[in-house]
Structures are given as C-alpha cells and as structure tokens.
Amino acid sequence: MKMKETLHLGKTSFPMRGNLPTREIEWQKEWEEKELYRLRQELNAGKPSFVLHDGPPFANGNIHLGHSLNKISKDIIVRSKSMSGFRAPYVPGWDTHGLPIEQVLTNKGIKRKEMSMAEYRQKCYDYAMTQVDAQREDFKRLGVSGDWDNPYITLTPDFEAAEIRVFGKMAEKGYIYKGLKPIYWSPSSESSLAEAEIEYKDVKSASIYVAFQVKDGKGLLSEDTAFVIWTTTPWTLPANMGISVNPDYVYLEIKADGRQFVVAKDLLETVKEAIGWQEIEILQELAGDQLDKMTAQHPFYDRESLVMLGDHVTLEAGTGLVHTAPGHGEDDYIVSRRYGLEVLSPVDGRGCFTEEAPMFEGVFYDKANPMITELLAEKNALLKLDFFTHSYPHDWRTKKPVIFRATPQWFASIDKFRQNMLDEVENVDWLLPWGKTRIYNMIRDRGDWVISRQRAWGVPLPVFYAENGEPIITPETIEHVAQLFEEHGSNIWFQKEAKDLLPEGFTHPASPNGEFTKETDIMDVWFDSGSSHEAVLRQREELTFPADMYLEGSDQYRGWFNSSLTTSVAINGVAPYKAVLSQGFVLDGEGRKMSKSIGNTILPDKVIKQMGADILRLWVSSVDYEADVRVSMDILNQVSEVYRKIRNTMRFLLANTEDFNPSTDRVAYEDLRSVDKYMTIRLNQTIKEIREEGYEKYNFLQIYRTVMNYLTIDLSAFYLDFAKDVVYIEAQNDYQRRCMQTVFYDVAVALSKLLTPIIPHTAEEIWSHLKEEEAYVQLAEFPSYQDFANQEELLDTWSAFLDFRDKVLKALETARNEKLIGKSLEAKVTIYPNEQIHTLLTAVNANIPQLLIVSPDSFEIMGAHVAAPASAVQFEDVAILVEKAEGETCDRCRQVKKDVGTDTNLPTLCSHCAQIVTKEYPEAVAEGFEA
Hints:
Distance between the termini: 9 Å
Number of helices: 29
Largest sheet: 10 strands, mixed
Radius of gyration: 39 Å
Number of strands: 33
Strand content: 15-25%
C-alpha cells in the first residue's frame, strides 16, 4: 500500500471537462423522453400561477443571438418560478404572416400572379411551417423548456378565428372604420405600413422655395403678389390643393428684387438669406386670419389653391406658409377636410403618378422631383433650389423610403379609447420605469391604426360589401366567418365566393338583388400577434388572462406591447399584461449593430457547437440586459472561463462528498464548528440574495455576480483553501471532516438548484452525483433559507477574522518573496496582537493554524502587550513575524512538525498522522508501506 492511499483524496466520476456540445444533446433527449416539462407542470398543479406570455418571433430564417437572449431570459424566469412555488407553464409562439415570407417566395421564383390566391397562400403556409419547425429545434437546443409540441402559431385555424372575433368586437363597439386618408405607404412592398413598421434613415432631399401667384387676395393682396412656400417633397406639388397659414402669426407683403411676396414676419430674414434676396421693402403687415380663404394659382396646373388656417403651421423652418396636399400628409388632410377640399392622391401603389397628375403619368415619384423643379423654373415659380440631408421614414423590412399616400384603408379609431389605454398604462408594472414613459407618450401621440394591408399572406379582413358598396360587418357575419376559419382555415376566404361565406339566407337592405362582394385586403400582422391574448391566453386552459408578464426587446414598445394593449383595452377594457420587461439589442464586442455586410454576426449554432448552450445561457446571465449588450467570441471565451470555475468548484465538492451520506453522516448546525456555522450562514445569505435580489427581481446579473463572489471569495479563497488539510488528512468519520462535508454537500445541493434556470444541463449533471430523492433537479424546489441564532455576532467575528487572515497572508507572501519560505506550511508564524485582535482570536473559537494553512507546531499568539521584533511585518492592530519553521516535514500531511518519527513504525509521519494510519490501516502498518 502506498502512503497516499491513506489520504481521502476526493474521487468522482464527474468529469473535469463538460463536453457540452455532445452531452447536452443526450440530456435533452432524455428530458424529452421522460417528459420533464409535463412532470414539472403536474408537480405544480394547484399552486399560484405565473404566466409569461411568449411574444411570437417571426418564422423566417435562422435564430440569431437576439433570439437567444430573449428565449433564454424567458426560460430562466419560467424555470425559476417553477422552482419557487408557482405553476409556470410556457407556451411558445410564432408570428407567421407577412411580407417577408412573400419576398422569400418571390426570391425562389414563385410568381403570385401565375396561380390562384389560395394556391399561393398555401405555398406561404408550407414555407412558414418549415421555418417554425427549424426554429423550434433551434430554441429547444438552447435548453428552453416548454410545451413545444403544442405551440401557438398565428396561421392556425383556431388563432385566426379568435383574431376575427377580436376584430368583430372592435367593430361592434364602433372602433373600426374605412376612410380615404394619407398613411405611410411603401412603394417597395406595395403596402400600407403601421407606425411600428417605420424606421428613420438620413437621406439627401431637394429643398425648394416656390411662388404661388395670388388669384383672389380679398382686396388685400393684388395678383402681382405671390405666396412663398417651402417644401422638401417637390413630387407632392401635383397634389397641392392649398396653402396653410397660422392665424396667430403676422405676415408681411414685401417687395424683393422687383417682385412681391408674402412670408411670415418672423421668418423674413431666414427666407431672405436662403433665397438670396438683396433689396427688401415691406409693403404691409397682415394678421394670419386675414389671409383665410384667399386663393392662389397652382404653379403649373389650371386650378386654384385655397389659403387655410391651421395650427400645425410653425416658425421652426420654411416661410410660415405651408404647401398643403391633403392626399400626402396627416396635417394637410386634417386642415383640408375642415375646408371641404378634395383628397387628391395621384400616385399609385408602386409609387408612380397616375392620370390625375398630367405630364407625369407613369413616372416614379422620386424621379419626378427634378422634372417638377425644371417645370417650376420654366414657369418662373422656382425661387430657390438647394439640397440638404435629413432623417426620413423608411420601410423597416425593405429599407426603402416610404411616402404618405391617401388610399382607402381600414382603421381602428384610437381616439375612442385612447384615455382608457393611458389609464391602463398606469396600472401595469413597468419593470423598467422609462418603458412606461415611452409607451405612454406613444399612445398619447399616436394616430388611428391602419389595420389593412394590400398583400396576400395574412388573415383576411372579414368585411363584405353590399351592391351599393356599403361595408357589412355584423356580429352574425363575424361569427359565421370565425366558425368557417376555425373549421377550414382562412384560405376558405379565397376559395369561395362572398355569398358562400355569408350565413345561409343572409340578406341586407343595400343588396336588393342578393349580390355581395368581399374585402381583398388582409389585416396588419401586428393585429395578428396583438390578438394573442385572446387567441392564446383566454383559450388555453393552463394559461391565464391577463398574463403576469410580457418580455421582449425594447423595440416592442411600438410593436407587440402596443398592439396587444390596443386590442385588449378595446375589447376587454384592461391591459393584457400585469408587468412588462424589455431588453436591449445584441451588439458586437465593439458596440456595433450586427450585420452580415460588416461580417460581425455570430450564429448561436456556432457557439453551441463549439462551446455548448450552457455557455450561451451563462452569457445571458452575465449581461445587463436593460441596455444594449455586447457579445463576441472573446467575450464568450471569458464566460467559458467562468463556467470552468463553476464546474471545477462543483467537482471539488462532489469529489469530497463521495463518501458522505447526508442521512447518516450529517452534523447538525448546532454541533458544527464555528467556521462551519459561519459558512452555513454565508450559504443561506447567498441563497437569499440570489432568490430575492436575483430571481424575484429578474436581475440575472445579480445572480451571476453573487454566485461568482461566493465561489471565489467564500469558497476558493477561504473555505476550500484549507479544506484539503481536513478532508484529505483526517480519518473518514472524523468530526471535523464530517462538519466540512456537511457544508460541502449543502453548498453543492443549493448551488445546483440555484443554477438550474441558468445552466440546466450542467446542473442536471451535478445533480446526478448527489444523493437527493428527486430524479432530476428540474423537479426540485429552490433551497429555502433561514437566519440562525447569534448570526450577526458570528458574521462580525468572522468578518474581522478574515481581515486578520488577509494580513497574515500578506506577511507570508512577503516571506515567500524574500525566499525565506516556500509553502505556508514551512513557516513559523508568531502573532503580536493588540487587545482587540487578541480577544478576536479567542472569540473565533477555531483551529487558527488550520485556517491559515500553517503548521500548528510553528504557530504562536503572544500576549496583547508583548512588543514585536523589528523584523515583524507591522499592521495597525497586529504585527506578524514569519520565520522558517523548525522540525521535519510529515510525509502524509506535509506539515512541519517536531514530533515526526515519534512512532517508530511510521518514522516519516507526525504523531497525529501516525495515530490515524495505525487506527484506519493496521494491516498496512504491519506490512509496511511501499516506497
């Protein structure tokens, strides 16, 4: 027998290397076969519920790191709630309608116009489902637990039917109307856009000053005078129907370089400088309301432009007179309607001019800009042409500019329930307070919601038209269509005629001949996902309405958070969520947006295959997701090092509790040594902090930091540092050893549970080496925590001792640097304390040499008033003398002892080790040890 075999060197089959890319797949397969999600739900039956409603990602393409941040965050929350006394089901969802899927089909060479609408939509459906299946596997590979076999998908008949009923309830309350109104229109996608689908980019635009000659000046202005307007959209001039002025401003009739003009008084100098006028003569001042209902001659068409009063006219830029085209602007539309002007919008869905814009028929609007400025110059109406760069709205999908264009659209009237929505915002717990301000202002300032789209792939608007064009939306028709969709899916709308989609025997006064047509527009996709509270939360037995939480990216204040709030307040009067949490975007390591063109994207699949999903999950817990977060392979490698620290620490605990049976070997708290009590208290404090400040507040970074501080400071730097001199050296059933093993085991159990929501694969692997009754840690509950008798006194004592210990370690390090000693066990340490430290070292009630990892034979504490020699390392409250220890090194414990060889049978051992070996291994002593 070799001497080292008398040591209780920790042994465990828990491997040092995780081999996560391979092992995770095996565990996930096992979890699926054992139906762990279902078992967890059954365990939690009857408990208070916590429902995190999944915002549906769009089913198109591989998942990216933004998806990973989102889904892993949700999984951490749901898992933690499931282990904290809540019934926390998770139903994943997908958003499956919309233009991107149509664009994919176009890129595949599928031509919409070469097949029936129903056939084309079936192809969209088939493609969307392949994407759902692919993303589902990607999300499952992240270790996300949920009802993956029964997700909600916005294209399923039950969802579409529920969405139709949401629309019907809103229509019944008078919130749905059809109107010709300027809306965001994307020529590149040939569809209307909601505000949520707009993003802004800088563009270079023309800036022109145009003269409109007075036609009827109401006796105040002559026909020799011209109104001066400024615009950055020359292409809208063919649709000009008027000029707006502010009734509260003062306007000037001036003579400039031989011509007469009208401009706002406060903008005269700005206009003079911009146009380059040299000589200015003020002819008269006019109040804004004096200009009301004057007329001007359109600069190149034979029609008049009406002067109107509008509060939207400002002095921030321009001339104080605003070119007004009711078909191409929100404010223009509002003021023109008040004056009864025609809404003219001579641009088609592709962005090309129609016959209503003579001279420009068929020309793309942007290409018409130079043509129009040239025409203005010919007509002597162009006073100045310049160019400037400014922020302009773009289609967030095609990244191309959008225009304001008046088209017949279906709207949801926000005004009718805006105040209700604002009231509900106040009732929601916005976990990031700025989020409340953001959505409140959006709702306060938003216009009516354009809910119609001129596309193919979406849920049809369930509207019929009578023979005279009157729209028909009744509770009877809505419910009938909903039932048809529920049974056949929404494609039936395109497979059957209107009369076959109406209830049998349906009649309407506006259709005396029984003829009906149907709407061909589809619903905005935000109406799809925005109806999920009705289609999912209210329909799934295991879910609840309102949801306890919505969690998505910060862009969803204008998206899903907004559309869901709108539809829910409209039909239910309440918000669909009790709390909302948002996250920032994922940027690269330098803080740049990830882009294929830059080449800085990182696919989750790459990280998982190289490092494992648990590394990605640990990264999620390591970032402050309230703001934008950074990620790079370097950052992930750093996280991997942290993972290695966790794994190695847990491996040490497992290895050194292999021979520990918690049911028979445990030492009760009251019987533990002082240091073990202290570590038990610190464990309970750590559990409390992780649960209360981490999981309960959704602060993953706090969990990450708390775990790492505990592992690094409490365990590695202190408790585990001196542990080997106990758990390796002492007899198997030694009291000190069992005390430490009790703490080790409790730490391993607690940390494996607490880490389960973050790194479930690794936690489950650790759990398999513990001796707990639950087959899987995912089916366990979080560890509880408690306060102990004299806890504060113990904490204060040990905090003071650790300060003292730091000073001893510094003194030992100094001696090591001076080559006086090698390892600390070779040192003779003499302590010269003041009264306070002397009292502390008694109060700590511990084997101090053991805690300092020095040999007990070479450790001495002097009296409180004994003077320290000059060679001692001096501190404010203690001096420490480090010398070379006298004696021999024990072959077994490696301590320098004066009693090595006192047992002649074991001449290389100290008496303590000799006693242990003689008692535990008598046969080996008799036979002798191998060299």
